[in-house]
Predict the 3D structure of the following.
Amino acid sequence: MRILLVLLLACVAGCARDRSSMRAIEAAPAPASTVAAPPIAPPPAVAAPALSPDQIRTQCIDGRRLVCGKVLKVLPDGLVVDSGYSDLLREPLIGSWVIPGTVSASRDSTSIELKQPGAPCIGWIFLTDIPRRPKAKNFDYVVIMAYPAGQYVFSPAPNMTKVIRRFSAGLDTAVKLSLQAVP
């Protein structure tokens, strides 16, 4: 404890010196008996270990979410969805992954996304690898299990971009997209 206090005081005293005394010390030659310590190198950057496809597959399965939300935009390679409409999980609506936009649905603003497999997803997401039939249109609702597949850069308006989470309805596609995202 005393050594730590002495080092702290030495640092404070060293920082309090004015520039003229620092220049005088720097200009003075070091005594011959003093051996200069080698400079301390910063610790090497530790690279994240590369994950195998099986590990990524396991992460995708553990990160799967139930996407239940409103289609904001239909794009050629997927859908931008505002997920979090968990009242779409009621009985008469569970039959197809696409629910017409004429259905009355509301979003619970107090709900939060749990970190459990199969929990309802909350927020804007990009959903790819969707079923071909029936086709989803803008402002329809979707309910489907999806797997995390990295991020997607979405442009909601000209000169504006938003990074959102990307999910895939197919596990194999999610693994493939996740492998591509790893540097």
